[in-house]
Structure formats: structure tokens, C-alpha cells
Write a structure and sequence with these properties.
The structure holds two protein chains of two kinds.
Chain A (H helix, E strand, L loop, with lengths): L1 H18 L3 H17 L6 H18 L34 H4 L3 H28 L23 H5 L8
Helix pairs in contact in A: 1-2, 1-3
Chain B lengths: L2 H25 L7 H25 L3 E11 L2 E9 L1 H24 L6 H20 L3 H19 L6 H32 L4 H6 L5 H14 L8 H4 L5 H11 L2 H9 L1 H4 L3 H23 L4 H21 L3 H28 L12 H4 L1 H15 L5 H15 L4 H26 L16 H24 L12 H4 L1 H21 L8 H7 L4 H32 L2 H18 L4 H20 L1
Antiparallel strand pairs in B: 1-2
Helix pairs in contact in B: 1-2, 1-4, 2-3, 3-4, 3-10, 3-15, 3-20, 4-5, 5-6, 6-8, 8-11, 8-13, 10-15, 11-14, 11-15, 13-14, 13-19, 14-15, 14-19, 15-17, 15-18, 15-20, 17-19, 17-20, 18-20, 19-22
The chains are: A mainly alpha, B mainly alpha.
């Protein structure tokens, strides 16, 4: 419940910012909104709290901005996924010519050990994932952390070798 | 000195200068073109193109260069001939000037892009296609140029192909252009069947053209120039990088449609239906685009809608039977629109990708050159007296007021003029003035000469171009000379009204009232609900029909309707109708039989 209230607060602040362009006006209305949220802070009765939340969500829906301000790099923004076409997967590094690989000796020296580590831990990661997904299929995209001592979290290789946010 | 020889030589030199950096890296494996070489080549081409322009202006002779003839079938030849008349000769230096400035800007803007050479070659390929379009003397070459600019637009809008919205936007641009192409092909087919040639000279000799090919041409122009009905691709085309938006979607590609109408103008002169269609379509698109621009918060979208609005204005001019004025507006519009896009690109890049004007403010102190040129561009757009926009826009509005046209179209255009002032002022005030609202403290500077030089050059162009072009072109039609004072100053009065409206609205944003959604805001913000309606409703209904047809048709029709059920239906209908008549009273029937037989016998025995 707390998460939902906080999410409503953040959403409404962002939309308020889209409406009130100038900072002083925004600050005024943001303070008013904060006060409205704070007045009902200590309601312990879950039924009443859920009703308040529902009323708040409806008021948000009625007052939302048609073109809310979205940060350029977040989903829906103007620069989101802009550099996706320049991100190359890491297995291309295996195709480099030895003279090119000689330009980065320390990385490529360690790379074979990292790949050996990945091969070893792959079966264990897979087993952990199989045990932990519910029978209908995974509910979220979040991956579980490593449970046992000495194991690595599942699918760590894709995370560690992901390309940079803004390539080159 | 043979002037014709000089003119032809310089044209050839210029074309070589443009084509070489593009084609040479493909043909030879050793030479590589860098962005700087391409920029220098275009600059040289611009300076070279001034020579034929000057020669043309002093000799005022049209020139048709005849290159090669493709004997298609026995009596249908397609000569590849290029026409150098006032329109194409004037267009060349303008397009090259704008392209030179944009390429210089792009060498800064796209500096971090790994495929920058490919970008520049795309831009020059686009330029070549556009120049083919403008110099084409027959519809075939025009069609080649038309498709060429469409394809390059697709490639350039979807430059960052990892981004989903960019791919959608590129596809949308191509599809909308395709719908326009249907109209173009229709009129080309009519032309080929009627006049047996695709030359423009033959086309304009037909004085009483039927309305259908003309409507086809108007459809083609509507598709390419984003008139109302085929407009959604233009705001979405802002997904491409800013140099692309500056070159394609402000100065050159979107005027291709209007250019087609200018070229085929004598076909339109006598057909009042086609002229009225142009007029109303143009007026509607002007107003619609201006309304949508009022509530946009993204700089590039505001400028895109303003382009759409000015294109509607150009269509209105064509509807008023004034092709030369439309061309004048194209030329002046190219300067200040490209400048507006470059200024916005410089602002966006400096703010690290921030395109929303709600997060910009107080940039006047930080980027003085850029913001002052932004102001000059907006003033030119609004038609401030004696800047570039004034010479074309004011003349258009005067002619609109003084001719016997639709009052409704007149009202729409006048309202759109004041809206133009409103959204331009809104944009400038939110971007430049006031306290700064930018997100992070970025190193904002304009120290690079690659930014300031193009902007100042285009600013100079926006100020001088109107004067220069009008003083060197002889008008073909007499413009109205006398009119009441209020008509003469109507454009300025409307602009001032728009400015006052903008000031009033910005005062309202400062006051402490909670803003809310209202109907007008919703209409304007969601672009008039046009996008969801057409993009969802129509395809859904078509797909549903298609699915019903494919899955149910065979079963339903052949196995049921043709055979048993069809017969049943027919029989059932007849039997139901006749059942009510069939009451079953046998005694009454026998009685009536007996009665009628008795009467007949009595009559016969008598």
C-alpha cells in the first residue's frame, strides 16, 4: 500500500510539473499537494486508506497532463534507445584480429578465464532459475540473486558484458 | 562570350561538384569522402550556381537542355531533358546555400556518430534527387526525383534505427508519400494517354483538362507536402536527427509537392473546382497545424507544425492562381525555417538531448547568437515588415483579401496567421526568457564556428532574401495595387493580435491558478484526435472485414448459400408471404368455386 501511495505522489508531482511550468508556481502547488497527502498520513484503517487512494487515483486521472514531461532517456522520451543500433554484442570481440587484440593485452589475457568461469557456472544458474520460477511462468523480469555460497547470480554474463549506455 | 555556353558549363561544373563526393567513394576503393570535403564541395557548388543565376536574370531566357532520348515504344519517347527556367534557376542557389549551412552544422551535431560519412552521403544523395525533381522537364524525371526524395527521407528519418518510434515514423512517412504517389501516377497515366508524351510543354498546352488528373496532382502534393488528411507523418518525422529535419522537412522535400503544382500550373488555371480544392485544403491545413502547434511542448514539433502551416499557406496561394508567389514563399520560407531548425538543434545538443521547452529557459544569456537568430527566424515567420517572410506572406494575404474567393478559406487563413504569431512567441519566451529551468548544469557554449557560422549566414539570408528575390523577379500577374487601409494592414494587425494573445496567455501561466484539462486543450494536444482515429479505426475495420472474408466467405457462400441454405432462404421467403394468404377455409373455397362456376354457366347460357 505504501508503495502505491508513494507512486501516486510521484506521478502527480511529475504531472504537476508538466502543468506548472514556472518553478515558483510549481513549488506553491507542490506544497499544497504535499499537505493534502500529509493530512491523511496516519490513517490506520486499511479500508479507509484504500478508499482515499482510489479517490486520489481518480483525481489524478482526471487532471493528468496530455503530454507529460518525460526525460529524454526514459522510455517514451525523445532519446530513448537512440543508440541501440550502435550497441554490439560482446561475442564480436572473439572475431577480432590478433593484431587488434594486442592493443588491449590485459583485457584479452583475462578474457579466457572469465569465459571459463561462465561455462562452469552456467549449469548452476540454469538449475537455480528452473527451481525458482513458478509453474505458470515467470511473473516479473527481475532475476533472483545468488542463493548459495560461491554461486553467481543467474544470467550475470549478460549484465556484466552489456554495452555502454552511450556507445563510443 | 557566348552566354549560353558559359551558363551550361557552370551548371555542369556545379552538378559535378555535388555528385563527385557522393558517388566517387562507391566507385573507387581508395578515396574516402569526409564530412568536410562534402561540405566544401557543396559550398563550391553554391558559389558556382550563382553564375548561371546571374546570367539567367540578365538574359531572362528559359533553357531546356536535352540529354538523351529513351525510345520507349514506337510513338512514345521519354527524353531526359532538364528545364532551367526561373523556378529551377532560383531554387538551385537557395537549396545549395541551405544545404551548405546544414552540412556545416551537421559536422558539429553528428560529430560523435560513428557513421557520419554515411550520413553526409545520404544528405547529398537527397540533394541530388531534389535537384533532379526541380530541373525535370518531364514527368518521368520528376517521378524519379519524387521517389528519390521519398526514399532518402525514409533512410534519414530512421537514422537511429534502434529506436522504435524512429522506425515507425520513417515507415509512416513512406506510406503517406505512397498514397500521394497514387495521385501522381494517375495523372501521369492520363497525360500519357491523352497527350502521348510526358513533357511539361505538352502537359501545359492542354487548356481544358478534366478534373480527375488535377485531383490526382493535388493528392500527390497533399501526400508530399503534408496537407490535412495526409499530414501525420510530418510531426513524427522529427524522430530523425535535427539536420535531417532542417534539410528535408523544412526547406526542400516538403516543397516538392507544391513545386509539382507550380510546374503544372497552366493545367489548373481554367478549372475552378481544382483551384477551390487547393484553396480549401490549404486553408484547412494551415489552421489545423497552427492549432496543434499551440499546445506542443517539444521544440521540434512546434517547428514541424509551423512548417505544415506554411505549406498550407503555399497551397492557398496556388489556389489563388499565383504560382510565382508560392515559389517566392518557398524560397523565403527555406531560409528562416532551416535557421529555426538549426538553432533548435544547437539548443538541444547543448542541453544534452533535452527537447522539451518546459525545461528550457533563460538561454538568452547563455547562447546569445543562437537565441537572437531564433528571434529573427520567428519574426520572419510571423511576417514582420521587411524581413524575409514579409515579402511573400503579406502579399499572399493581400491577394487573399482582394480576390473573389471563399470567405471561409479567408477566415481560416487569417486565424492561422494570428496563431502563427502566438505559438512562435510562446516558443521564444519559454525557451529564451525567464529563469532557467534546465535540468543539469551543462557546459553550454557556442564557441564552435561550425554552429555560429551557419546560423548567422542563414540569418543574413532571412533578412535579405525577400528583398533580393522580389527585386529580381518580374511578376507574371498584376498584383492588386489599391486596397483599403485595413485590408492592407490586416496581416500586421492579426500578427499583433496574436502577440497580444500570447502575452496574455503567458501572464496566465505566471498567475497562481491551478491549470486543468479542458476541451480545447485536449483537442489541440492530441493533434485533433486525427492520429488515433485514422491509424486505429480504419485499419481495424479493414482487417476485420478481411478476416471475415478469408475465413467465412468460402464456407458461408459456397457450401451454404449456393446450395441448401440459399434455396431454403428463397423458398422460406415466398412461403412466409403466401402463408398469410393461405387461410385454409375449404368450405369457403368450395362455395366460391361453385358460385363462380354457376355465374359463368349462367352467363354462357344467356
Amino acid at each position: 500500500h505504501q508503495q502505491r501511495v508513494l507512486r501516486l505522489y510521484k506521478k502527480s508531482l511529475r504531472h504537476l510539473e508538466s502543468w506548472c511550468i514556472h518553478r515558483d508556481k510549481y513549488r506553491y502547488f507542490a506544497c499544497l499537494l504535499r499537505d493534502r497527502f500529509d493530512k491523511n498520513k496516519d490513517v490506520k484503517d486499511m479500508v479507509k486508506a484504500t478508499e482515499l487512494l482510489k479517490a486520489g487515483e481518480e483525481e489524478f486521472w482526471a487532471n493528468q497532463h496530455p503530454q507529460p514531461y518525460i526525460f529524454p532517456d526514459s522510455p517514451g522520451g525523445t532519446a530513448y534507445e537512440r543508440y541501440e543500433c550502435y550497441k554490439i554484442p560482446e561475442w564480436c570481440l572473439d572475431f577480432w584480429h590478433p593484431s587488434e587484440k594486442a592493443m588491449y593485452p590485459d583485457y584479452f589475457a583475462k578474457r579466457e578465464q572469465w569465459k571459463k568461469l561462465q561455462r562452469e557456472s552456467w549449469d548452476k544458474e540454469l538449475k537455480q532459475l528452473e527451481e525458482e520460477t513458478p509453474p505458470d511462468g515467470p511473473k516479473t523480469e527481475a532475476l533472483p540473486p545468488a542463493r548459495k555460497e560461491g554461486h553467481l547470480p543467474p544470467l550475470w554474463w549478460h549484465y556484466v558484458t552489456r554495452p555502454r549506455e552511450i556507445p563510443m | 562570350m557566348d552566354l549560353t555556353l558559359l551558363m551550361n558549363t557552370s551548371m555542369l561544373l556545379m552538378l559535378t561538384l555535388i555528385i563527385t563526393p557522393t558517388i566517387l567513394p562507391i566507385l573507387s576503393s581508395t578515396s574516402k569522402a569526409s564530412p568536410d570535403t562534402t561540405t566544401q564541395a557543396i559550398k563550391a557548388a553554391f558559389l558556382t550556381s550563382l553564375v548561371p543565376l546571374t546570367l539567367f536574370l540578365y538574359s531572362s531566357s528559359d533553357n531546356i537542355t536535352y540529354c538523351w532520348q529513351w525510345k520507349f515504344i514506337t510513338n512514345f519517347n521519354i527524353p531526359f531533358s532538364l528545364k532551367f527556367d526561373q523556378y529551377s534557376m532560383m531554387f538551385f542557389p537557395i537549396a545549395l546555400f541551405v544545404t551548405w549551412s546544414i552540412m556545416q552544422f551537421a559536422s558539429w551535431y553528428m560529430a560523435t556518430d560513428p557513421y557520419i560519412t554515411k550520413f553526409f552521403s545520404y544528405l547529398s544523395l537527397f540533394l541530388i534527387a531534389m535537384l533532379i525533381l526541380t530541373t525535370a522537364n518531364n514527368m518521368f524525371l520528376l517521378f524519379i526525383g519524387w521517389e528519390g526524395v521519398g526514399i532518402m527521407s525514409f533512410l534519414l528519418i530512421g537514422w537511429w534505427q534502434g529506436r522504435m518510434e524512429a522506425n515507425t515514423a520513417a515507415l509512416q512517412a513512406v506510406l503517406y508519400n505512397r498514397i500521394g504517389d497514387i495521385g501522381l501516377i494517375l495523372s501521369m497515366a492520363w497525360l500519357a494517354s491523352t497527350t502521348n508524351s510526358w513533357e511539361l510543354q505538352q502537359a501545359i498546352s492542354v487548356t481544358q483538362t478534366p478534373t480527375l488528373p488535377l485531383l490526382g496532382l493535388i493528392l500527390a502534393a497533399a501526400g508530399k507536402s503534408a496537407q490535412f488528411g495526409l499530414h501525420p507523418w510530418l510531426p513524427n518525422a522529427m524522430e530523425g536527427p535535427t539536420p535531417v529535419s532542417a534539410l528535408l522537412h523544412s526547406s526542400t522535400m516538403v516543397v516538392a509537392g507544391i513545386f509539382l503544382l507550380i510546374r503544372t500550373h497552366p493545367m489548373f488555371t481554367n478549372n475552378q473546382t481544382a483551384l477551390t480544392t487547393c484553396l480549401c485544403l490549404g486553408a484547412l491545413s494551415t489552421l489545423f497545424a497552427a492549432t496543434c502547434a499551440l499546445t506542443q511542448n517539444d521544440i521540434k514539433k512546434i517547428i514541424a507544425f509551423s512548417t505544415s502551416s506554411q505549406l498550407g499557406l503555399m497551397m492557398v496561394t496556388i489556389g489563388l492562381n499565383l504560382p510565382q508567389l508560392a515559389f517566392l514563399h518557398i524560397s523565403t520560407h527555406a531560409f528562416f525555417k532551416a535557421m529555426l531548425f538549426i538553432c533548435s538543434g544547437s539548443i538541444i545538443h547543448n542541453l544534452n538531448g533535452e527537447q522539451d521547452i518546459r525545461k528550457m529557459g533563460g538561454l538568452q544569456k547563455m547562447l546569445p547568437t543562437t537565441t537572437s537568430c531564433l528571434t529573427i527566424g520567428n519574426l520572419a515567420l510571423m511576417g514582420t515588415p521587411f524581413l524575409a517572410g514579409f515579402y511573400s506572406k503579406d502579399l499572399i494575404i493581400e491577394n487573399l483579401n482582394m480576390s473573389y474567393v471563399n470567405t471561409w478559406a479567408l477566415l481560416l487563413t487569417l486565424t492561422a496567421t494570428s496563431f502563427t504569431a502566438t505559438y512562435s512567441l510562446r516558443m521564444t519566451s519559454l525557451v529564451q526568457t525567464g529563469f532557467t529551468r534546465i535540468l543539469t548544469i551543462m557546459p553550454i557554449n557556442e564557441n564552435n564556428s561550425n554552429i555560429t557560422n551557419p546560423i548567422t549566414r542563414l540569418a543574413l539570408g532571412s533578412i535579405m532574401a525577400g528583398l533580393l528575390i522580389t527585386s529580381y523577379t518580374t511578376p507574371m500577374k498584376t498584383l492588386p495595387m489599391t486596397m483599403p487601409l485595413y485590408v492592407k494592414t490586416s496581416a500586421i494587425i492579426l500578427t499583433i493580435l496574436g502577440i497580444m494573445l500570447a502575452i496574455e496567455l503567458s501572464n496566465m501561466t505566471h498567475s497562481i491558478t491551478q491549470p486543468k484539462q479542458n476541451l480545447l486543450l485536449n483537442f489541440s494536444s492530441s493533434l485533433g484526435y486525427f492520429n488515433p482515429l485514422t491509424h486505429r479505426l480504419m485499419p481495424m475495420s479493414l482487417l476485420n472485414t478481411g478476416q471475415k472474408l478469408s475465413s467465412h466467405l468460402i464456407d458461408l457462400s459456397w457450401y451454404k448459400k449456393m446450395g441448401p441454405e440459399g434455396l431454403t432462404d428463397l423458398q422460406l421467403m415466398m412461403t412466409k408471404k403466401s402463408t398469410t394468404l393461405h387461410t385454409g377455409l375449404i368450405k369457403t373455397y368450395l362455395g366460391s368455386f361453385a358460385l363462380s362456376i354457376l355465374i359463368t354457366l349462367l352467363m354462357h347460357t344467356d
